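Tutorial handout. Part one gives the primary structure; part two gives the three-dimensional structure as tokens.
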Amino acid sequence: MRLRRFVYENGITLCFLALFIGSLVGQAIAGFHAFNQDQVQHNSSTISFGTYLSSSAFGQAVMENWQSEYLQFTLFIFLTIWLVQRGSPESKELGKEGVESDQQQRLGGYAPRKGPSWARRGGPLTTVYSNSLLLVMGAIWVGSWFAQSVTGRVEFNAERFDHHQDALSWTSYLTNAHFWEQTLQNWQSEFLAIASMAILAVYLRQRGSPESKPVGAPHDATGVEG
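Part two.
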């Protein structure tokens, strides 16, 4: 019963973690075969699956996607503090932009007994906790972006060696068009997805989803979830 209740109460997280693991395993297997096919075509030695998993080729492919996803959510968390979209359930109500008062955020003396202890303490700890979601998501983005740049440089220099060219330093690679082409092609898709969700949710509905307004809600109802 405890396991069933745990699964029920954490269904969204567990479902998406399972989908993530399945997709990552699938990507690893497909990428491994694609990598070795490319090696054969270039008359190079193939590698084992374990070696591929620790290679910069696999690392770059994974980090490329991670950094763009975490950038998307980091920016969305931050910008929705200040920006609104009339009629969208993804937005706060018009006129409620900003970090809000302690009373609205249930801080200090306004914190309920069952609320997080850091919300009641005040001082630097409460300030950090008040921004902890943005800080952690931003840190994951910076870390995955850095990992992408490191693994991407290794892959890029391997191609340069094949063409008898000198390797680029990490700082030189960061200003290279190849790095930014790979980076921006991921960013633009994430930004488009957020903009599409914000505006389409104004006029379209999905019954039963908290990402949608109630089916009968007016188009200009803002910050209302179904």
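Part three, for discussion. The first helix runs from residue 2 to 9. The chain has a mean pLDDT of 93.
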